[in-house]
Design a protein that fits this description.
- By secondary structure, the protein is mainly alpha-helical.
- The protein folds into 2 domains: about 5-75, lambda repressor-like DNA-binding domains (434 Repressor (Amino-terminal Domain)), CATH 1.10.260; about 75-110.
- It is about 65% helix and about 0% strand.
- It has helices at about 5-15, 20-30, 35-40, 45-60, 60-65, 80-90, 95-110.
- Helix 2 crosses helix 3 (about 35-40).
- The protein is elongated.
- The termini are far apart.
Length: about 120
Amino acid sequence: MTDLDAQAQRIREARRERGLTQEQLAAATGVSRSAVAQWETGRAGQITGNLSRIATVLGISVEWLLYGANKRAPSEAGTGDELALLRLYRECTPADRNFLLTTARRLANLPHPVGESI
């Protein structure tokens, strides 16, 4: 498998995991559906100029998109609850994301009595 084929596979898998059609990804990144089809079949098209938009829409890093590696991977969500929170976060508006991060940071710094749930 070439680097381009691997990139194509990562784009296709990330799109499908998010429940997006090629048409939806195309609209969100400002390209045609045929451009997305080219990306997903390893025929590059205009992938280089659209990497950051693709990554943003799919909620992945450009590094992972290009190389299949993500320096933050060890800290990514692994349990069901963590994944559910991550999915919900990704559905929020930017303002709500900021609110959630602020709240989570505040909660993480609060001492909680033993046995008390948050």
